[in-house]
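I am still getting used to backbone structure tokens and would like to learn alongside you. To get us started, please write out a protein record for me. Once you have written the record down, we can walk along the chain together.
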Amino acid sequence: MRAVLLFRGSRTPSRQRRGRGLGTVVATLLAVSAIVAVVGASSVAVAAVATLDALQAGLPTPSRLTQLTYPEPTVVYDRTGKVKLATFGSERRTVLTFEQIPHLVTDATVATEDHTFWTNAGFDPLAILSAAAQDVASGSIARGASTITQQLVRARLLPASVVAPGANQYVRKAKEIVQAARVTAAFPGQAGKELIITAYLNQIFYGHEAYGIAAAARTYFGVTDLSKLTLSQVALLVGLPKAPTTLDPFLYAKPDAQGRLVVPPGSPPVQRRDFVLAELASSSSGTRWTRLTAAQVAAAEAQPVILNPPPTAPMVAPQFDLQVRNQLVQILGSVQALDAGGYRVITTLDTRAQQLAEKWVYAAAVLPNLPVAQMNAQIAALKIPASEAWWIRALRGRDPHDGALVALDYRTGDVLAYVGSAGYYLSNLAGPKFDPQFDVAGVGYRQPGSAWKPVMYSTGFEDRVFTPGTLLMDVSTPFSSTWTPHDADLVERGPVLLRQGLEYSLNVPAIRAYARVGAAAVEKTAAGFGITFPGGPQEFTGAGLTAAIGTVEVRLIDLLGAYGGLADGGLYHPTRMILEIDGPNGNVVYRAPQSQGRQVVTPQAAFLTDNILEANTDPSQNLVWGPMFHLDNGPGGQRRPAALKTGTTDGTRDLSAYGFLAPPADPTAPALAVGVWMGNSDHSNLGGVAFGADGPARVWHAFLNEYTNGWPLADWTPPSGVVRTTIDAFSGGAPGPWTRQTTREWFIDGTQPGSPGAIDPPGLLYLDCGGTWYVNPAGAEPGAPASWVAADADWARRAERGVGVPSGVGTVTGYLYGRSSWGGPVATDCAAVPSPTPSPTASPSPPSSPAPSSSPGATPTPLPSLPPGPPGRPTPTPPPALPVQSAPSPVSGGRRPRRRRAPADGRRSGGP
């Protein structure tokens, strides 16, 4: 709200002047009383209070004129301060000074509303008497008798009880006259009149929520500089306050042949315009600077009234704007302060990022559900290249109707893009599966599936429960009498290292790892990263082992903040949307503090997680995800290092993808983390088989590919306190006589094999049968519950016969992607194996991830999914059903994993 302080200097009216002015008031009131006495009993009320002292009682001091505030909307901008995102407030208004108002506007207002304005004492006795005489028969007070000063007084300088509905209109009129005289006497001369008319032109209502002449010019003609208004436009605007509803030009306007919105000649607003033009040409107009000639009037009357399209006040980033509005209410203290305070708000939003985010979410969630011809037309209109259009078409029939995306700078917490639904204004497509205005990104809670696993694994690294080289078993296990989860492709890969489990998003290893870490520890990490649950912390800790694979709902923006924290070396910056709030006078009233961040996990634990997730966009490391999601948009087409994790829930209700880029060397450049969700508003299962890799990961990739195209490359730098060492590629731990292949792996210093705090014992997977080493998972996880051991033994008996051997729960044995062995022949009993042969010699160390075998063996077929690439491009191995998650290996010394309550039902989650 802005106070207009235009009066120059302090003027205290003399007692003699005040006496003369108020004496005239008394005389006028007595004359009015005599005339209206014939009206009836109402005049008795006036007569009873028709003394000057009584009329002045309770009136605000005239000095309040210089303290008037005007409700102004709050305007929200993007991070540049140039792109307007939204306007909050019931009244559109821009407050002007006298010098900012053209003389033509002032003169037209005086000529139309108050010919004697510059010379009267705040009221016009002759006009009052004339109006009173004309209205004796009607018994009402004529508003046409009111001067500009009286109209201002009525709006802003009378007690609320006097102007309230049902109040005595004669008392109101009498007090209005007295107060107008007091104001004029308190602010005499030219300066006082300028103050009064400026306040009037900032206050008066022009229709269509436009208060003040500046808002009116913008609303009807799209003009922000009043000096650009034509004579015809000024006359039309000045005529509106008489009856802003019935004279509304938009009620009469019609498109012409050129598509312009034209108000027809002869319509009420145009007739009113012509009246104003005639008044400006009148010799009794009372104007100071303007006197029109007949030719000027005729030219203005001939000018067509062409309106700006009616204002719809759309928000540029609707759900982001509404989140900002909620935060502004908290900062400013009330809705009224926000809607009327005239603040200028600079947000964190990057308009280009927002436009790209909206484009790709719309393309993935809306286009596949349109008729084919319409879908193809929109693909062309959006200029979507063939390299992306193929997967949009492939989503047809898979049934997701909604989507959301958030992008943030994880080193500051700044939200750069925020899409809460596939289209806030798409009400024509609304239905049970698509609620356009519901904000999934920041309000809705949805299951993250396997996208939850990095939070759990980073906790285990932090607490030194396991390492990336820990051995876990990917074997369908009855964790309760009713819950035997498995991977979505129904393949049991047997022994895997934690890195492989997280890379390929395997479910059973993740559950076994979670049992070791413990619910309380994981919930503590989640809370540190700002993650909340609908039912509070107890909902997560009470969910049993199912929580390991993302069955507990979270908000997209919260989980993305955790990913950002992992990307920034475990340092979490709370998300923010508001950078600065400026008051109507231009002074800064709020500036967002620079976040120092909160260290949730150590840089070493975060690096191990980042390093594993980075493989998912590197074709040389991850044989499935790497060829699908590598970003080759660096300078010269170089690959851009990026980390990615997908998630798919049971019944494919929720699909998601989260990831980030390495922090850039430039500390002022954005460090990006991006999260995407797809599904249906009613939580219904998707009609077609789909995974997080099919929709959200494609959106994630397309958005980053376009948004970061040409940016300088950045990569992760190992922090101090991590070391890389050689381990057995199949069993983890130090290599030994059982080793057939080695690999290099990262560890927190002090946890690596051979160190005093080594976590992964050597040779856990192997059985020595007279110098020949066989794979026997019986001892893979020392201290494991009996049900786990029994499941491992069952797998081993089946694996002795090779791949594809079924279990009793619908799964089959199989190799890890790119392998044709489990580390050697499988045997559970030395008595049943052939005579021993010499032990193999350990092979040279391969890269950090095992290279694919030239003979990969029988690779299980995953569930149906989108084709891995556009037509004509090389086709990589189909994606696995679930993103792989690492499981903890047993701690040296036979540490026993803690038991966790199994779920009461058969819920599962965690697909790719």
The mean pLDDT is 85. Residues 15-36 form the longest helix (22 residues). The first strand starts at residue 2 and ends at 3.
